[in-house]
Amino acid sequence: MVSNILVIGGTGKTGRKVVEGLNQQHQNVRIGSRNSNPIFDWDNPETWLNALTGMDKVYIVYYPDLAVPGALEAIKGLTEAAKKASVKKAVLLSGKGEKEAERCEQVVANSGLDYTLVRASWFNQNFSESFFLDPILAGHVALPMPNAKIPFVDTSDIAEVVVKALLEDVHNGKTFEVTGPRTMTFEEVIKEIALGTGRNINYQAVSLVEYNSMMQAAGLPADYIWLIDYLFREVLGNEDNQVVTNDVEKVLGRKATDFKEYVQKTARTGIWNQTLPQTI
Ligand SMILES: NC(=O)c1ccc[n+]([C@@H]2O[C@H](COP(=O)([O-])OP(=O)(O)OC[C@H]3O[C@@H](n4cnc5c(N)ncnc54)[C@H](OP(=O)(O)O)[C@@H]3O)[C@@H](O)[C@H]2O)c1
Question: Which domains are seen in the chain, by residue range?
C-alpha cells in the first residue's frame, strides 16, 4: 500500500536515508525542512499543519536535540497538529539515555497516534558529517570522556529500522534501542579512522572543563556548548548507555553495521582527505 509520508529533517543524517528507503518502496515522500516546499520549520509552528496536511505518516526528527528547552512543547504542538491533519502514525527519533528525550517520547506515545520510538546511541556519522569532522581533518582530535565505551550506531541502520517502523504495523507501540555491534572509546575510534585512511591522526584526552573552554575559545554559541556538554555528561557519563543491544538485528534480520565497515565506506568518499579551509 502506498502512503503519504512526511520526513522531517529529510535532508539530514538519518532523514535523507529514510527518504531513499521510502522511495525504493515506492511511497509518496514529502521532505520537511526549512528549505522544502511546503516549508517545515521547528522554530515556526505556523508551518507545521500545512506540512502535515495530506500525510498519513510522519518521521519526526527534532533539531537540534530533544533535550533542549522548548523541545517538549514543540513535540506536543506537532503531535496535536498531526492529529488535526488526520495523520495516523508517527515514528520518533530519540536519543538513548536522555531523560528529556524520554519525556518527548511519552508525548508521542500518549498522543493517540500509532507510533514507534527509535532511540539511537551516538551516530558513526558524527565523525564524517558533523562536529567531529574538522578535528579529524586537522589530524588532532581532543575529546573528553576517554573511558566511555560508546556503542556508536550507523545512520544507515537507523534509517532502515525507521523505514520498517513506518511501513509495517507490527512495530506499532514498540521502542527500539538501536546501537552498533560493539562499544568503542574515542581513542579506538580515532585509531580505526587513521588506519582506514592511512593518515596520521592523534587523539588527546581532555577534561570536560578543558573541552568547554576549547569550544568557548572557538567562538561557539553558548546554547551549542550547553548541549554538547549535556550530551557528554548525560549520555556518555552513564554506564547504562555503554551497552550493545540487538534491536537492529531483531528488526532487520541482519547484524548491525560495524564501525570498521563504516570507516571503509566513508574513506572511499574522500571526505577525510579534504584539506581544511584556511581560517585566517
Ligand atoms: N547525532 C547523534 O549522534 C544523535 C544520536 C541520537 C539521536 N540524535 C537525534 O537526531 C536528531 C537530529 O540530529 P542531527 O544532529 O543528526 O541532525 P540532522 O538529522 O543531520 O539534522 C539536519 C536536518 O534538520 C533540518 N533542520 C535543521 N534545523 C531545522 C529547523 N529549525 N526546522 C526544520 N528542520 C530543520 C535540516 O534541514 P534544513 O537545514 O534544510 O532545515 C536537515 O534536514 C536530534 O533530535 C538528535 O537528538 C542524534
Answer: 4-122+152-180+241-256 (3.40.50.720)
